[in-house]
Amino acid sequence: MPPKANLKRAAPPELDTTTLRTPALDDEDLRMSYRIARGEQGVLTFEPYISLLLPHWRFRTIPIAQTSSSTLWQVFQHYVKAGDL
User: Fold this and answer.
1) CA max distance for the chain
2) So what's the pLDDT on residue 9?
3) Could you name the domain of life of the organism this protein comes from (predicted)?
4) CB 74 within 8 A of CB 56
5) pLDDT tens digits along 33-62
């Protein structure tokens, strides 16, 4: 049996919030296709946002979780400022 692959994943690339796309603002069909889920957790299952956010959703250790939460908070603030709510 071959050895198990190393499960350690590389950190996601640094995210530049000044260049984030706001696809829901540009496409009304996309914006209207989102259904609010219980607890507002649906954004992590909704493309194109899942592809952007999920690589930064990390919490294996406290330092990784702190970096992750900081990045996700910056993204959230960017979308609020852009009106992509």
Assistant:
1) 53
2) 63
3) Eukaryota
4) no
5) 666 666 555 566 667 777 788 888 888 899
Q: 3-state DSSP call for residue 8?
A: coil
Structure tokens at 45: 């299952």
Q: What is the mean pLDDT of residues 24-30?
A: 66
The answer to whether 30 and 47 are in contact (CB under 8 A) is no
What length is written for the chain?
Answer: 85
Token pair for 54: 């999920």
Q: For 60, which DSSP code?
A: S
Rounded to whole angstroms, the Cα distance separating 64 from 8 reads 13
Query: Residue 57 has which token pair?
Result: 């959703």
The b/e string for 24-57 (b: 16+ C-beta within 10 A; e otherwise) is beeeeeeeeeeeeeeeeeeeeeeeebeeebebbe
